[in-house]
Amino acid sequence: MPDKLSAQCHCGAVTFKVALTDGFNGVLRCNCSFCRMRGAVVATAGEIEITQGKDKLTEYRFNSGEAAHFFCSVCGIYTFHQRRSNPEFYGVNVACIEGVSPFDFSPIPVSDGINHPKDGGKGGVAGYVIYEPNISESDS
Question: What CATH number should be reported for the domain holding residue 77?
């Protein structure tokens, strides 16, 4: 069983612990209509334990209604979602995990959610997001 990592929304009203299935090896983004607007980098978790603020979580479902996306009702931050491709697993916003930033990862594969296999598409990787920090001479 992987170690549980501490996580929370921006305001701290919702706190939770996550057990990532493969650490940060499988982080990704998605290009479906919802994820494209949300823009979060996610890691896969097999287990989520809400330690505070379960009553502050708001659920949103769209299209097929299979994936449940959870947000803090106080600050609006997306925390995690139950995956459509495999509802036994969760996608966790890495920015919510203590000490982790989405800018820690580059390149980040972008899952082809527009052509999701459950909709008859082939899925796979649609492309990559690359973060290159601007390092000026004054930063060195």
Answer: 2.170.150.70
Cβ proximity of 113 and 101 under 8 Å: no
C-alpha span between 55 and 86 (Å, rounded)? 25
How many angstroms separate the CA atoms of 9 and 19, rounded? 17
Instruction: Quote the pTM value.
Output: 0.89
β-pair partners for 44: 91
Instruction: Give pLDDT tens digits for 62-102.
Output: 888 888 999 999 999 999 999 888 889 999 999 999 999 99
Neighbouring C-alpha atoms within 13 Å toward the C-beta of 57: 19
Mean pLDDT of all residues in the chain? 92
Q: How many domains does the chain have?
A: 1
Show the domain range for 100.
4-139
Mean pLDDT of 94-117: 93
Nearest to 45 by CA among 73, 65, 13, 16: 16
CA–CA distance, 102 with 113 (Å, rounded to integer): 19
